[in-house]
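Yju2p / cwf16-like Zn finger, pasting as requested.
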Amino acid sequence: KMSERKVLNRYFPPDFDPKKLEESKKLLKKSKPNSRGGGYRKKKLLNIRMLYPFTIRCNGCEVYHYVGTKFNSKVEKVQSESYLGIPIWRFYGRCTQCGNEIVFKTDPKSGDYILESGAKQNFNMNNKEVVKKKSEDDFESKVINSVLESRSMEELEILKNLNKRLMNREATELNALKHILDENEIIPEDQFITPTDNKCNEIISDRERQLITNSVRNCIDSYEENPKFQKKLGSCVVNSDGSKRLNAAVKVKEKNSKDLFFNYYDTESE
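Structure tokens follow.
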């Protein structure tokens, strides 16, 4: 119906062949051999709308066609050339003033186009400067990245060493103290604490108790040699609540200094 805004039904004639329509639109189809004589038929070129990829000057009328100017062109696939399996295409255009044919093709290696005939490409000084500057920037960025990577690796090694020290801190400190306090005794290697031992906590508690007892005994031995300490031991009083204090007015039965000190330490620890 003519009044319909969107036509949903289309008429297809009985002799319509969709294969012929697809073949006419194919651009990569092979050229057919000529029936009249030897050789192949000349392939039909595909008409497309194209833009000039660079500024050119026509050789016929010397008119400039600037980059980005639209024009009607024909394109074909170059049979004898390719780059890493990428096909190369050739474009044919005409000058808008004199009708001179301008031909250029793709360059997949450099990601650009190559002018073949019909015009002269405008030379741009900025291109070399941009390429040179880009190469310098790439080199500087590579150097900077390598330096940053080396610094990050050094920092990572430092952090790893610190983590190892912190993980083994208690064991190393305890072994060092044990070595200092027991200089005259030789400790077998199997008694040293290792981070892989399952009974590490039990061994640490035993070592702490042993260190405390050794330090207390050393202190008692040094105090017993002092005469002032012996006088104070004679005035030790036991309160009703079980605590001990010093009182010069009341005298109690003198006891061994070591037993007195260890009994006080045991009551406090309980």
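Note for the archive: The two ends are 106 Å apart (CA to CA).
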